[in-house]
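Encode chain A's predicted structure.
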Amino acid sequence: MAHVDAGFEARSTVSDQPRAGASGEAGWESVRQSQSTRRQTYRAHDVIYFEGDDARHLYEIVTGGAMLYKLLPDGRRQVVEVLGPGDLFGFDMDAQHDCSAETLVATTLMVFNRSEIERSSAAQSHLTRCALQQVCAMHEHAVLLGRKSAYERVATFLMRFVPERGTVNCKGPDDEDNDTGSLRLNMTRQEMADYLGLTIETVSRVISDMKRKGVIRLEKHDQITINRICSLCQLTGTHAD
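Encoded structure for chain A:
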């Protein structure tokens, strides 16, 4: 999945790029402009739908961000994905949603009728590409949860929102002497912990340690400055020693 705003407002030395899921295709645009498609706004932390609700609609984020999560019977939560502008979600295999969706910040969505999507070949083609992207994202998340240390998980999570960096084809910094970035967190420590499979105490401890070592600066509660992006990337476990 592309490294762009998803639950964060990202401001780095590299300009933000649109998500790979965003489409300018004429066929998909015709679906977006359909009379049955509507635009809907939500406040921060509004529930879009619950696990088990009828999956009658699909959703595309226009602005803002959302998270998908599942709850265990004892109340524990696993955030399975963090979504941003251009992401399409709500396309479940069955007639009910297999997880819940909640906004992270004030969010605007395009809401599509599932029945119309299923009748449109252009929409089906676009949906297939979005589904394949989500499969790749789930593979990365599985590696993160299954093999990475707490430090690597937090570093990977932060790097996810640095545009064009940390990917296989990363070109490195434009300026070695000014390799900085700034992220505004729109997720709580608990939400981050639920996505990373960690406790809130562990997430807070890792962030404090990164600050102590000079990898990042905490400008205020929700603002993180990355002092050197390459240094943070080296902590993700992606690179061989």
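Helices lie at 26-32, 114-119, 121-147, 150-159, 189-196, 200-212, 229-233.
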